[in-house]
# Entry
Amino acid sequence: RVRFFCSEEENIFFKQSLMPIVKKLFNVKPTFRYCDSHCLVLAINSVRIEKLFRKIFNHTGNKKQNLNVPSIKFDEKSFIAGLVAGDGSIVITKNNSEIRKYPLLHFTNSSKVLINFYCDFLVKNDISFYKCKRKHDGYQVTIKGGELRKFLSLVTILNQTQQSKLKVLNTIEYLPENTSHKDRLNILNAAVV
# Structure
């Protein structure tokens, strides 16, 4: 069994992007269920897929710290986009007390190998970042400001929740606090009219 965990807000990405890909590539129907009030699980019951993932990612054991970079030839930018879609978050912060807000991209992962791969990609593309060790969930890498614009010119944001935050920010030049994905889509629709 292969399982992907997501937050309530990321379920749109799972339902609209990940589930159709799994159905098309592997001809299996994944199940989607609530694990608790804030966590959803996409489960794929297939020994074939599990073996494939273990082989591609050199993954041994059940700990996510053991995840590795794929052992096969792959597109680096697409892999980074997938990492960000799964373990990235767009955070909008205020600049002092001004209304204008500035986005940050946080990538958090417990695999040191994946974090180092991500940081190496940023260094190769001359993108400045901040990396720190987190107490309970591994490492976090943060990109902000002009560096985030450089990153976005190279890597496509696949997660619809993350996309909607950036689109609203670019459209109305700020992001109202505590908006859901649905709220942000309504803001975008109203801006078009």
